[in-house]
Amino acid sequence: MSDDLVPDDLWERIAPLLPPRPPRRHRYPGRLPADDRAALRGIVYVLRKNVSWRDVPAERTGCSGVTAWRRLRDRTEAGVWPSLHEVLLAELRKAGLLDMDDCAIDGSHVRALKRGAHTGPSPVDRARPGSKHHLIVDRHGTPLAVTLTGGNRHDVTQLTPLLDAIPRIRGLVGRPRHRPGRLFADRGYDYDKYRRILRARGITPKIARRGVPHGSGLGKTRWVVERTFAWLHQFKRLRIRYEIRSDLHLGLLQLACSIICLRRLRTSF
Predict the structure, then answer these.
(1) How do 182-185 and 204-207 pair as beta strands?
(2) Which segments constitute the Insertion element IS402-like domain (predicted)?
């Protein structure tokens, strides 16, 4: 089996978060369930390669694509992916690799081929059905939280949901960190209402103004969110939304964010 899909450091962090399996029946127990690590290999394989679930190579992953999809469904419903992301953010903070004094926020369109919840006519793709990934990152581009909406939703509508989605990040003595110091955003977030909301939360807004020439200088800080979108879209399954169920697509997004956090931990050693 190929462990380049689920290396030991990823498996060691996710294994304690998996819900326990139900006990097998004593009489007529049926087949042995597929190994959890093998099922995770199948999920990561689809995330990276963007093959259909039925085309997952069992000889490489150790399980069928149908089993991998079922485990994705079960792990998503159990909340495993946001828990994994929170664990890795705490490790980054403990290692001094998380800088939330300056954060950046943005959204990115993706086409949705099969419609479903959180899809809508995309204003940048001739009204074809699409979805939007909304992301907030720290100064280094580490993803802090991600949300999913329809392609016709305005970016600014996800400003407060993204802030609320940032977990209380532990890792150091004292209060958990869950709030940016300053938040950088482009002209799409230029509304005084949302500036007031940020200041009420103790966050300094750094939002470009509409109707003024380019060259505000904010791009020197907020470019990291564009780079993180590029990292996310290296996972080919996230470039186009294939999942009808929005929670499964969001689960894959959260898993990709966790893998990006783990890569940052690896490069620090």
Answers:
(1) parallel
(2) 7-85
Q: Which residues pair with 147 in a beta bridge?
A: 134
Q: Tell me which of 80 and 33 has the higher pLDDT.
A: 80
CA distance 1 to 51: 18
End-to-end distance of the chain based on CA atoms, in angstroms? 27
Beta-ladder partners of 241: 112
Give the tens place of pLDDT for each residue, 5-29: 999 999 999 999 998 887 777 777 6
Distance CA 23, CA 53 (A): 27
